[in-house]
Each structure stands twice: as structure tokens, then as C-alpha cells.
Specification:
Layout: H1 3-63, H2 70-82, H3 89-110, H4 114-118, H5 120-155, H6 159-166, H7 178-181
């Protein structure tokens, strides 16, 4: 082989090596992002299960005192019964939002019962569920950030070239319920 042929062969080999390294790096980055998404979802799932486990205690604590507010208690019970850790993430998000809404309604009703509100068990359960709700919101933010990074990565070259080969599809966000994203009313009422 002549020197120009060797140089051409080396150049072609170098281009293939760079392309291979780029594709391999992109593949590894996407795999890492998928693992982060799965980890973030597992953290959400733990908090959802903890909230799920606390709801019967709260319902039992308020049921007797709130005899004529049974529709509120029933809604919390119904939302809890709908929870399924094996459901797809978008379905779990809807169920989680319905549960959060039912719990907020229950807490609003509890405010109307000073004796119940001051009862230690109810107050402790309320604090614990509020802590879990805040934890779910924080973990949802982390999960959605990882989904955003993943979805962006698989839409960009070179990962976009690999996506059809490996079946990478955009993941769905764990969206907030409309009540959480609604713009608050800041107008002042005047007499």
C-alpha cells in the first residue's frame, strides 16, 4: 500500500471510530437517563404507597365524628381503592391527583370541626399525610425533570438515530392536576 492509501484508510477508520464512540456514548447516556427515570418513579411509588397506607387510619379517625359528611369520607375511600401500583404511570397520576383532591376536601371539612381538628390522632395523621403530599410533589418534580431530559435526549441526534433501533419512545410526564396549575384569583372583593 502506498502512503496516500494508508492515509485514506486511516482517515476512514478514524471516522468510523469517532462515529462509533459517539453512538456508544449516546446509547449509554440514554440508558442512564432511563435508569434515573425508573429510580425517580420508584421514589414516587414509595410515597404513594405510604399515603395509601395512612388513609384508612385517617378515615377511621374522622368517620364517627363526621357522620353527616359521609360523602367526603366515601370519596377518600373510593380514591384509595382506585390505587393500583401496577397501573401505567399516567393512570397512577390521575388516581394520585384524585386522591390528593379528596384528601384536601376532607381536610377542609375537618377545619369545620374544632373538636376533631384538635384531636391528637387526627392532627398527627393530617400532618403525616400533608408531609407525604409534599414529598409526592417534590418527587414528581424530580421525575418530570428526568423525563424531560430523556425525551429531549432521544429527540436529538445522534440518539434520535438509535431510538427506532432500540424502541426508545418518549415517556409521559406525571402531570399535576388542573387545580394545582390553575392561576389563583388575586382580585380583591369590594363591598
Amino acid at each position: 500500500m502506498t502512503l496516500p492509501e494508508l492515509a485514506a484508510l486511516f482517515a476512514v477508520a478514524l471516522v468510523f471510530a469517532i462515529a462509533g464512540f459517539t453512538l456508544l456514548s449516546s446509547y449509554n447516556a440514554v440508558v442512564a437517563l432511563r435508569q434515573r427515570i425508573d429510580k425517580a418513579w420508584s421514589n414516587i411509588d414509595v410515597a404513594l404507597k405510604q399515603r395509601h397506607d395512612q388513609l384508612p387510619n385517617l378515615v377511621a379517625a374522622v368517620r364517627g365524628v363526621m357522620a353527616f359528611e359521609q360523602d367526603v369520607v366515601t370519596e377518600v375511600t373510593r380514591a384509595r381503592a382506585a390505587y393500583s401500583p401496577t397501573a401505567p404511570i399516567p393512570d397512577q397520576a390521575v388516581i394520585s391527583d384524585a386522591t390528593s383532591s379528596a384528601v384536601r376536601t376532607l381536610f377542609a371539612v375537618v377545619e369545620n370541626y374544632p373538636d376533631l381538628k384538635s384531636h391528637g390522632n387526627v392532627a398527627d395523621l393530617q400532618d403525616e399525610i400533608e408531609r407525604l403530599e409534599a414529598m409526592i410533589a417534590d418527587r414528581r418534580e424530580l421525575y418530570n425533570d428526568q423525563v424531560y431530559r430523556y425525551n429531549t435526549r432521544i429527540a436529538q441526534v445522534p440518539a434520535a438515530l438509535l431510538a427506532p433501533i432500540f424502541g426508545w419512545r418518549a415517556r409521559e410526564f406525571f402531570a399535576a392536576e388542573p387545580a394545582e396549575t390553575a392561576r389563583p384569583d388575586t382580585s380583591l372583593e369590594r363591598d
